[in-house]
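Hi support team,

I submitted a single chain yesterday and got back a structure, but I'm not sure I'm reading the token output correctly. Could someone confirm the output below corresponds to the sequence I sent? I've pasted both exactly as they appear in my results page.

Thanks,
R.
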Amino acid sequence: MNYYQEITLLPDVEISLGFIWQNVFQQVHIALVENKIGPNQSAIAVGFPDYKQGRFPLGSKLRLFAQKQEQLEKLAISNWLSRLEDYVHVKGIKPVPAEANFVSFTRKQVKSTERIEREMHQKAQRWSVKSGKPLTECLKDLEKTKPTGHSELPFIFLHSQETKRRSPNESSKFPLFISSVTVDGKQGVKQNGSFDCYGLSSKVNREDNLGCVPQF
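Hi R., thanks for writing in. Yes, this is the structure output for that exact sequence:
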């Protein structure tokens, strides 16, 4: 990634930083979808320079990265954020500094408590039918290995556009959990990997496939 554009979020006494993050990142996501280069694939990546370094877990800055300056120019993120102009400051496009570490920001799937309970009950029912044990006994045994729906990772609440289209009466709100893996010092990571339409790394199975962005 050779060029970047920085967005600073500007909360005030009436509008919290978390609420601004929701609105800003929702617009960034929509912009990336509209400019995607393949199925859920974006040429633009995102970075969080203050990740876990401030009072708000994601800090107050968001960076957009691209291989070419014209890719950021085409995205024209200021247009997508125009209705939030009182709460964001968008800087011009700049070259990435020569000296920078590299970080991969990825989406972490964290199941909701409701989904965990539903899946545990379904699993207990299957086990009860197969083993002949009472359902209550199967549920009690499964409690020992019950996963947790809690995560300490930073997250942003977003609305799923797919859910809105598919089921307009259902809640489309979900937390997007974001994890960070430092990969500075590795050879060949600067241009490797791919990014989804959240601007996050879409390859997490092997370290050399991570989508990486400069961190400075």
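A quick pointer for reading it: The chain has a mean pLDDT of 82. Let us know if anything else looks off.

Best,
Support desk
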